[in-house]
Amino acid sequence: MRNPVIDVVGLRCRYGSFEAVRGVDFEVAEGELFALLGTNGAGKTTTMETLEGLRPADAGRVRVLGADPWRERAALRPRTGIMLQESGFPADLTAGEVVTLWTATSGRRATEDVLERLDLAHRRDVRVKQLSGGERRRLDLALAVLGRPELLFLDEPTTGLDPESRQRTWEVVRGLLREGTTIVLTTHYLEEAESLAHRLAILHEGVVAVSGTLVDVLAGQPARISFDLPEPLGVDALPMLLGDVVHEPSGRVEVRTRELQEDLAVLLAWAGAADVRLGRVRAHHASLEDVFHAARSRSFRVGVAA
Ligand SMILES: Nc1ncnc2c1ncn2[C@@H]1O[C@H](COP(=O)(O)OP(=O)(O)OP(=O)(O)O)[C@@H](O)[C@H]1O
What we know:
By secondary structure, the protein is an alpha/beta fold. The protein folds into two domains: 6-218, 3-Layer(aba) Sandwich (Rossmann fold); 223-285, 2-Layer Sandwich (Alpha-Beta Plaits), CATH 3.30.70. Helix content is 31%, strand content 27%. It is built from ten helices and 13 strands. Strands 5-6-7-3-8-9 form a six-stranded mixed β-sheet, sandwiched between helices. The longest helix has 16 residues, at 163-178. The termini are close together. Mean pLDDT is 90; it is low at 299-306. Adenosine-5'-triphosphate binds at residues 15, 18, 20, 38, 40-46.
């Protein structure tokens, strides 16, 4: 990758004697959205805080926009935007006053009406404590994008939002990507990463278990065909398939296969010829959820696709 916006090599972070991040490598290219995913306690926040210059690395090399985020934080600050998990605005200020205050103290110029952009202009005079949870998160995002940063960190930007508010946030994020902003996102919503990320890494117990483009990581997992087999048939009645056949205790049959189309065609042709009615047939390629579960069990690894 030429001139990555973020370059992390061998990052290690500890809390006392506990090593939370244990040798993490990844790169983020200009203009892409990179999702940092992982189980609870995997080290996402610790890694983000290091990238944001909020804590030093204990070992390894971290470069953000070509600079050391810890030592050169003041220089990087005007070029980056940070949306933390928890904001903590003074509850009695209005949304408009929070933006004014932030503009004055952050050294950022209000290059546009961010409240308008985040669909909060009509709530300008409403106190923070009276905003809904979704509106408060949008105010967080408004402050993070003030001054049009080149690089934006989004730490769980849609946690606790209803589906409609989440979609609205995704639209704003897509708009920022169209304008060329580079974004690092952490989220527990896998569909959020699936919908927005160009590349991703899944952390597990402080190491990168899986990383690459969405297409790469999905390709590393088999597709699934599942169905109910009518009594008294057992799996030994099925035709020869290329994938592995598992008869679940629930009675449902699952085929894990890298040849989805071939196995599905053979199965349906057999059912048609034998006059067998398969119940609730589902066939789908691997999802990020499948990759996530595999990463947890560390059953496979995919290298970073540069
Ligand atoms: N201040 C601290 N002191 C001691 N241990 C800490 C501290 N902060 C985090 N840890 C530990 O470091 C590990 C990584 O924490 P981190 O918050 O980076 O994980 P995470 O992936 O962001 O988790 P989550 O998804 O739950 O937010 C966890 O085991 C956590 O308990």
